[in-house]
Amino acid sequence: MNTTKSSNKTQDGIVSQRLSEASCQQHFSDLHQPLTKYGALVEADRCYYCYDAPCQTACPTGINVPSFIGMISQHNNHGAAGKILTENIMGGTCARACPVETLCEQACVRNHEDDGPVRIGMLQRYATDQASQDQVSFFTRAEPTGHSVAVVGAGPAGLACAHAMAVLGHDVVIYEAQAKAGGLNEYGLAAYKMVDDFAQKEVDMILSIGGIEIRHGVRIGTNLSLADLQARHEAVFIGTGLGQSRRLNLADEQAHGVENAIEYIHDLRQTERLSDLPVGRKVLVIGGGMTAIDIAAQSKLLGAEEVTIAYRRGQEHMNASDHEQAFALENGIRLVFWAQPIKLEVQSNALVGVEFASTQGDNFTLSADVVFKAIGQTLLPLEGNLSLTSGRIEVDTEQRCSVDGVWAGGDCIAGGEDLAVSAVQDGKVAAKSMHQWLVCGQNQTRQSEV
Amino acid sequence: MIDLKSNFIGIQTPNPFWLASAPPTDKAYNINRAFEAGWGGVMWKTLGEAGPPIVNVSGPRYGAWHGKDRTLMGLNNIELITDRSLDINLQEIIQVKKDWPDRGVVVSLMVPCEEQSWKDILMQVEDTGADGIELNFGCPHGMSERGMGAAVGQVPDYVEMVTAWCKQYSQLPVIVKLTPNISDIRTSARAAVRGGADAVSMINTINSVMGVDIDTMRVSPTVGEQGAHGGYCGPAVKPIAMHMVSEVARDAECGGIPISAIGGVSNWRDAAEFMALGATNVQVCTAVMTYGFRIVEDMIDGLSRCLADRNMASVDDLIAAAVPTVTDWAKLDLNYVVKAQIDQDSCIKCGRCHIVCEDTSHQAISTQINGERGFEVIDKECVGCNLCVNVCPVEDCISLRQLQAGEMDERTGLPVSGDYRNWSQHPNNPMRVAGE
Fold it and tell me: Are A132 and A198 in contact (CB under 8 A)?
């Protein structure tokens, strides 16, 4: 963040204290009020307990949704949480942050009726919150195996892998660049989805299994090499995510007011006082995914007067779901489509607007004092001989990389879906494969090659 | 709109909706409110003989069985007969009958099984101007431990004897209220008929234990540290009550004795069903204890439209309309063949029809249509059992299609016969009656 937080006025349009801290806190309170006990029972009762349930199939981690909802309706919230966490150790985060409207809830057969899908995400949150409140533990670490594995990155993929390996009795060391564990759960998700320091609570729950050590401030490719890891550990899992925001590749991209959405959200999530954050008057967001929606909405909630999302293609092409788009519109955000940024308008090294080429007509310029780039991220360079596809790590169906003894998952792999829930599944699948590899002998050839 | 006026053993009321003898009919105050709301008649809460008043528990009298959305499905109670003095009750009955001459007031009675006890109270009741008496032979809790209520109703000889006393010592019509806590309700109904009863009312409440609090490991509800069984009623008991009503309605020995139906009547549809099964009127309790007396407005409107829609001129056209369709299993047509069919347009693909058929029935529903998730009936396996229809969450999505005469039943490989044939005529029945 190239601003000074102590200053009330860093640039004409970019100021802190746009809103009182109380207003900010109110705006950033829980996006959805959790279900009450009665609300959960009524909602659970709506579940038809489908056979071979489409919601379960739609869940990247394969949570047995009808089963856990049935348990809620039988007042067995702990059992429900156990069902969820067994498949998805980050069931709590996913209940808050999953785009359920494109996953389980989209598959719900109730969509064929008038009253909408069962609110699976909210029920999942209800069950996992209950278990968390009651401090129920669902996992027991097996007898130590003496095997040592490295996990790079303490995000959803890395933590899921680490937890599964720890349960199996292996010793895990997680190497994490940031000061806190959690990855995008801690640094990337919109604040109103993860209130009350939930990411850290979840991390604590995951680490409580034992056998997992986290070393912070270590970044692969910078002060750690894959070779080191391979020398120290028998198996390595890479779950670094994508470290580097994509550039617009326009002149003056270093100008004041040109920001990476991810970095701003990173600061937002860590700030003590939301009102201290510098906020533009007119904010422009370039992109069409969830991050674009998140940064736009959060800018608006921090007091930006005008927020516009400009996307180079049409509404139907946006990665952000209809639900997310509707959320943006409800928050007074303008969506502009078929707009390709071609020039940053800069005066005295400060942004004043962005010129767009439109496939639908003439070029146009939108004035802005802040433009957020939310056009995706790329993998930070990794040394080593890992094969990449489209700039991301290539893996097989067991999450194995091209180098023996190395697995990868989460956003850093080719075909990664940029979803916490998919990352968790990657970590889970990798752990199973790593365990087999450790237990059955490291020289065993790959099944697929037999 | 059709006039719902009702004639129950000579008691004329503006509609066939009565309140059962129960807490809602314990006092003039409640009954005045009921009549203001539009109820046709009341069974005054059971009076006992003169003397020290009955003592009720001061703890919970009711326990409930809830649906998942807290719909009250069933209620049980351990309240006894009226705990107010006989004199006050009788005075109130006189006044209520004066104030509401067009409504029915029948007095429920329960005294010890002694001729003199009945004789005494019958004379007092007759002086009130009440329209009739209902003999409480059904109350299954408390009073039965003292040799009254169900303790009488469970012994047909007692039912007949007491009924006969009442007919002997009173000019009033006598309605015998039957207990369902007996193996065959017809035996009690027949005893009432032999005793000269003018009508039977049924069913009284069913013996029940509502639950156990598994935190305290106590039966619930508890009075102090213990609980006792109560009498169960409400929507949950309706199918049981309908069976009993229909059995008495079609029993030759009962000779078509008028029936006042009780048991989970909550709305006009329930009332219409009971009446179609032979009831002349219905009595309601749990529904008013759940929602208040105002529900009668909807019942009146609904039943009136029901009659009009079916071209019925009065409630008399409804009474027993469905009784001829109730029969014994042995009379069912074994040549009637149906197959389930699933309407693909309304199917939401929940798969429940498949899994219940696969796990618990006849493996007659497949899971794929053209390689996609979809559910279809396999006629070759389908026995037409109706389970899929019952479990399907979408109304009318699955239906049963009757195979016409001559059509091939793929399950048996035989064409469907158009002839009626029941078990008594079936070749597999070693006891079959030739030529029947």
Answer: no
Name which of A42, A110, A112 is nearest B69 (Cβ-Cβ): A42
Those residues of chain B that have pLDDT short of 70 are 433-436
Cα dihedral B369/B372/B375/B380 (nearest 10): 40
Q: Which CATH number does the domain housing residue A351 bear? A: 3.50.50.60
Q: Note whether A370 and A253 are same-domain residues.
A: yes
Q: In A177-241, which ranges are E strands?
A: 212-216, 235-238
pLDDT of residue A384: 77
Nearest to A73 among B68, B354, B394 (CB): B68
A45: which chain B residues are within 8 Å (Cβ-Cβ)? Answer: 68-69
- What are the tens digits of pLDDT across the range B365-411? 999 999 999 999 999 999 999 999 999 999 999 999 999 999 999 99
What pLDDT, on a 0 to 100 scale, did the predictor assign at position B138?
84
A120-133 helix and A77-87 helix, angle to the nearest 10 degrees: 110
pLDDT mean over A295-307: 96
Residues A229 and A286 in one domain: no
- In three-state secondary structure terms, B176 is strand
Q: What is the mean pLDDT of residues A99-114?
A: 95
Q: Is there a domain that residue A26 lies in?
A: yes
In chain A, the number of structural domains is: 3
pLDDT digits (tens, 9 = 90+) for B271-314: 999 999 999 999 999 999 999 999 999 999 999 999 999 999 99
Tally of CA atoms within 13 A in the half-sphere of B350 that contains its CB? 26
Q: What pLDDT, in 10s, does the model give residues A313-326?
A: 999 999 998 999 99
Of the residues A109, A133, A157, which one is the last residue of a structural domain? A133
Of A51, A73, A113, the CB nearest to B355: A51
Residue in chain B nearest A39 by alpha carbon: B69
* Residue A9, domain member (yes or no): no
Judgement on whether residues A116 and A101 belong to the same structural domain of the protein: yes
Do residue A369 and residue A416 come from a single domain? no
Burial (CB < 10 A; 0-12, 13-18, 19+), residue B31, is buried
Contacts of A385 by beta carbon, 8 Å cutoff, 6+ apart: A402, A403
Give pLDDT tens digits for A31-45. Answer: 899 999 999 999 999
Q: In this complex, do A50 and B352 lie within 8 Å of one another by their Cβ atoms? A: yes
Give the count of alpha carbons within 13 A of A285, CB side only: 29
- Confidence at residue A243, expressed as pLDDT on a 0 to 100 scale: 83
Task: Calculate mean pLDDT across residues A346-355.
Answer: 95
Q: Where are the extended beta strands (E) located within B154-278?
A: 174-177, 199-202, 206-208, 211-213, 218-220, 230-233, 259-262
pLDDT digits (tens, 9 = 90+) for A408-448: 999 999 987 889 999 999 999 999 999 999 998 765 544 44
Nearest by Cα to B76 from B236, B183, B215, B188? B236
Residue A362 placed within a domain? yes
Residues of B in contact with A41 (CB under 8 A): 68-69
- A369, A385: one domain: no
Note whether A93 and A113 are same-domain residues. Answer: yes
Q: Average model confidence (pLDDT) for chain A? A: 93
Q: The domain that contains A124 carries what CATH number?
A: 1.10.1060.10
Q: Are residues A254 and A368 in the same domain?
A: yes
Beta carbons of B253 and B244 less than 8 angstroms apart:
no
Same domain? A186 vs A89: no
Give the domains, in start order, of chain B with CATH numbers.
6-325 (3.20.20.70), 329-425 (3.30.70.20)
CB of B351 less than 8 A from some CB of A:
yes
Q: What whole-number distance in Å separates Cα of residue B89 and Cα of residue B96? A: 10
Tokens of B283: 């009595």
Range of the domain at A328: 21-30+245-376
- Residue at which a domain ends, from A376, A403, A426: A376
Rounded Cα distance, B387 and B338, in Å? 13
- The pLDDT of residue A244: 87
